[in-house]
# Entry
Amino acid sequence: MNTSASTSSAATLPRIAVLATGGTIAGSAPDASNTAGYQAGVIGVAQLLAAVPGLDAIAHIHAGQVASIDSKDMSLALWSTLAQRVNELLASDEIDGVVITHGTDTLEETAYCLHLAVKSAKPCVLTAAMRPASALSADGPLNLLNAVTLAASGAAAGQGVLVAFNNRIHCARDVVKVSTYAVDAFQSPEVGALGWVQDGRVEFQRKALRPHTVDTPFAAPAQWPLVEIVASYAGVSRVAVDALVAAGVRGIVVAGTGNGSIHGAVQQALADAAARGVAVVRASRVGSGHVMHNGAAKDDALGFVSAGTLNPYKARVLLLLALAAGIGEKAALQRLFDTY
Ligand code: ASP
# Structure
């Protein structure tokens, strides 16, 4: 598929809400050569927008500040606030699309949560930056310009939540952060980007097939279940799993080795947890590829669900939303992981 769109004429400018949450894109350091020792989330949305020349020619911007945090501190309560705000804005006849500025650290989790919990076909685009606003060659202004360009384009409608970063367009389900420092910090492993934005032009090369937004049963709840992640590695013990069960955990995602394999000690602890009603999802720590359901001999006997192509952090998002929707039975959960 090849769909392209240019920006609209001034008379019919789309109305785009830009919601700021903090992150490095809103970060500031004492000097321009400092790209690591800065404080994230200290610059407000008005200043972010003022740093982007030409925005006025692309869209009528409605600015809002939802939070001012380093996204390493993202909370489930803030996801609920954000989802509610996005849903309200997109339900309004006054708004044609939403852009969210976010930190890069947990962007892939927030994006996937909104991809499942937003109830609109209008564009919703997340963006971020690897360099603070105060840095030489800050990447935030161009990323924000491209995100607004994408949200303002007809081509973004019905594509679910998108991420505009370093000129590329990613599907929220697929995108992951792959570098601790590089400006080209996001990829969609195995499947690649959906397209790109450059010099005001939006071009999609393919479409993601999994259902999202209006085609899911999910909503961000007021109260979230306790769902945590454990990892499997050489010499791991069952201490963490047993502690989580004692704490009343409702779901556990395991970041397994290879194709979702799990150390025997942890596997037994997880099987014990599943027998007590905890939802257990097997993902992989590898970073690309899928974790297949391994059938009667393993997953079915042990009570586990396989995460497919979702990494552990995204698998946790789906498990959180599923449990919040009252879906916890193993076969029903597996269907969700096979679908979304
Ligand atoms: N720690 C920052 C954040 O996630 C990193 C960034 O935005 O690049 O908010």
Observations:
- Confidence is low (pLDDT under 50) at residues 1-7.
- DSSP finds nine helices and 15 strands in the chain.
- Residues 76-91 form the longest helix (16 residues).
